[in-house]
Amino acid sequence: QDSDTTGTSKQDELSLITETPEEGFEVAVQLARKGVTTTQPNKKVLFMLRDVYSKDPDALIASSHVVAVHYQTVAAANNYWHE
Amino acid sequence: QDSDTTGTSKQDELSLITETPEEGFEVAVQLARKGVTTTQPNKKVLFMLRDVYSKDPDALIASSHVVAVHYQTVAAANNYWHE
Amino acid sequence: QDSDTTGTSKQDELSLITETPEEGFEVAVQLARKGVTTTQPNKKVLFMLRDVYSKDPDALIASSHVVAVHYQTVAAANNYWHE
Amino acid sequence: QDSDTTGTSKQDELSLITETPEEGFEVAVQLARKGVTTTQPNKKVLFMLRDVYSKDPDALIASSHVVAVHYQTVAAANNYWHE
Amino acid sequence: QDSDTTGTSKQDELSLITETPEEGFEVAVQLARKGVTTTQPNKKVLFMLRDVYSKDPDALIASSHVVAVHYQTVAAANNYWHE
Amino acid sequence: QDSDTTGTSKQDELSLITETPEEGFEVAVQLARKGVTTTQPNKKVLFMLRDVYSKDPDALIASSHVVAVHYQTVAAANNYWHE
Predict the structure, then answer these.
(1) Any residues with CB less than 8 A from the CB of E83 and at least 6 apart, and which?
(2) What are the structural domain ranges in chain C?
(3) A68 and F63 in contact by Cβ < 8 A?
């Protein structure tokens, strides 16, 4: 999970509804990171860890897995972006 | 999983229904922690373990994964917070 | 998974339907443990293993994950305890 | 996963429909084992492996997780055994 | 995952619809293997790896888990083979 | 996850809707890789890692698992390609 923890500042309230599947994927990535930063809010620690997991295939696959679960949720929320 | 095990005291009965996706995420985090504290209720042990998993990328990703599964449940419970 | 394998004795037949989300969580924990005791019915072995996994963050997160999957099932079974 | 690979002989055709949640759990366990025996049909190897995983907390939790996914499928198939 | 990568040749187009739960399970196994051969198409490497994972309980449980996720999809696709 | 990160260039906008289950599988693989490249955009690192995970049974099974979760989403999006 990237250590970019801007996540959801007060103005851009968290929402699952997006215009496109692409934007939906970004929300899924944001939710996956939020799951990490909620447990470990310390940005310095996160930044240090990034160097480890971003070069570890198992960690990269595992984080892609978390995004996949959230994307399933976001896609259902948007009725799979059917017109 | 953070060792904050206030979780659900008798007054604030556990509920999946929330006003916003943000509050829904907090319930998902609470449920994920409840799954840990149910298996390991000893706060001292949990506090000691926090030091380990909160600096372990694999553990942070794995706990984000548990939150993602609960968030899928909570989001469905709230019909994805459609108006 | 706690080695409490009372699980479902003949009188309290297994049911997914509960009054509250809190009771639903208890059924999910019971189902997660049942998945372990079905594979390893030997209580002495389970008790011995408890000492290991109950102090292992990865195991605690993994068991919380199993509870999360069952809780998703139980919550859907109860239509998310909507009135 | 237990090495009992009677699984589904020709007479008792595989079905997801059961009378009770308890029977549904047995089908889920059967499906989880079938996923192992399909990949490793050699009973001698399976029996040897049983000695390993049946005393390994991580493996016991992981197999409970597979049962949980199948149980979610079987429960939905039976409309959660609502009367 | 077995290194049998016949999977879907041009004639037998991939389909999720099957007559029976048993056939549905075969499609789920096929999809799980397809997920491996898509990432690693080299049959020699796959054959070599088979010797490793087919005797590793964790790998056997993990592959049973992938089959379980696909089986959930195939079962829903066939409305759980209700008559 | 293959290091082919063509993924979605601006012209072929990401969409979950496909003609066939086979094409749906390709989208699922694309989404699984996108989950990796979003976290690790550096192609050189990805290429280096491919040598590692493409010969590791656990990593191959884990990536097949991510594809399975996305395929469940894509299949639901296409109503399981029922005519």
Answers:
(1) none
(2) 21-81
(3) no
